[in-house]
Amino acid sequence: MKALVLLFCLAQLWGCHSFPHGLGPVYRELTCDDPETEQAALVAVDYINSQLRQGYKHALNQIDKVKVSPRQPTGEWFDLEIDTLETTCHVLDPTPLANCSVRLLTEHAVEGDCNVRLLKQDGQFSVQAVRCKSSPDSAEDVRKVCLDCPLLAPLNDTRVVHAAEAALAAFNAQSNGAYYQLVEISRAQLVLLPVSVRVEFAVAATDCVAKEVIDPAKCNLLAEKQYGFCKATLTVKVGGEDVAVTCTLFQTQPVVLQPQPDGTKVGVPTIVAEPAVPSPPAASLPVAALVVGPVVVAAQQLPPPGHRAHYDLRHALTGVGSVESASGEAFFVDKTPRVVQPGIAASASPVVRPCPGRIRYFKI
After folding, report:
1. 234 vs 17: CA distance, rounded Å
2. Which of 18, 107, 110, 232 could be cross-linked to 245 through a Cys-Cys bond (beta carbons 3.0 to 4.6 Å apart)?
3. 3-state DSSP assignment of residue 18
4. Are residues 68 and 134 in the same domain?
């Protein structure tokens, strides 16, 4: 037993002399509101929005945690925990994020919670891994700020589906251009007084002319996708219903031919991530709007979406692969790094950092 204790002590002593102070990894301490931390967070948010295929763009609200660690042989890892808020811009909307309004608390806001790992190399950030989820504000909190505000309704509620179909039929009936099909029901609320349904939905142009459509099933989406986004209110009245709808049509998305393993090329719509720098005002974007209503229409039957009141980032965000870790540390393990300077022993107690950072809009 004494021999084992002696052997252990010798091993410990050898370890201390084998790694002299100043040769270990150097950790940098950043606050959550440090400009470099915020730059990394904005790159993360831009990346997240570029990967979304459903729902709405998100804006940075707060940085909860930041950890910077060295990466061998070069560069640094930035592990962030950030909170986001849903904006009023659909993911198909080309409006720059800087010009998108965050949805108000009274509109039943949705908050996102993301863990992001970025690599900083040669002064540039690149996202390596992302995990996100999102959830609406609680009904109790909405009632605290607005007693009569409608809450989010399930997207597959029959009243919601009917309202979207009726609004799209009204839009197509008044259109002099292409016939549009429903892409997704994005958001809905049931209003008690007057009895009505507010619905927002995305549409896409087909190869049919709206005024000439006889059988919508024979209409096909265009190769160069042209999307639009609509907001509508269906009001129930005695003997019928009124539908008011406004649709904004976006730019046509060009198709890029991508090579396949067999040598052929397949057309894929391009989706470009927004830069983190200020962009031109939304007014300069070439969009078209058409307001219709109120009119009485008959809706067609379309399959409803899943039973949910919003598009959770957990499912709406496309998958991102795992990331290497030079230190062998698991992704997003919550450890407080210590600052090590050459020739100075690190303190045994963790360094306290001023996190979380500032709230940019409001906290849910």
Report:
1. 77
2. 232
3. helix
4. yes
- 139 pLDDT above the threshold of 60: yes
Residues 130 and 39 in one domain: yes
Amino acid making up residue 301: Q
Residue range 29-37: mean pLDDT, rounded: 96
Residue 275 pLDDT grade (very low, low, confident, very high; cuts 50, 70, 90) = very low
d(C-alpha 7, C-alpha 4), whole Å = 5
301 inside domain: no
Indicate if 141 and 165 belong to the same structural domain.
no
- For residue 12, the model assigns a pLDDT of 56
Whether residues 26 and 114 share a domain: the answer is yes
CB 201 within 8 A of CB 230: yes
Highest mean pLDDT among 179-183, 267-271, 332-336: 179-183
pTM comes to 0.75
Domain of residue 89 covers: 22-147+310-364
Three-state DSSP state, 46: helix
4 inside domain = no
Could you read off the pLDDT of 80-109 as tens digits, one per residue? 999 999 999 999 999 999 999 999 999 999
pLDDT of 328 > 50? The answer is no
Q: Tell me if 16 is assigned to some domain.
A: no
Closest CA to 59 of 108, 107, 105, 96: 96
In a shared domain, residues 344 and 285: no
Report H helices in 78-138. none
Longest CA–CA span in the chain (Å) reads: 96
- Within 10 angstroms of residue 237's Cβ, the number of other Cβ atoms is 12
Of 88, 91, 80, which Cα lies nearest the Cα of 110?
88
- Answer yes or no: is 179 within a domain: yes
* Whether 85 contacts 70, CB under 8 Å: no
**Is the domain of 118 the same as that of 181?**
no
Give me the numbers of helices (H) and strands (E) for the chain, helices first please. Answer: 5, 11
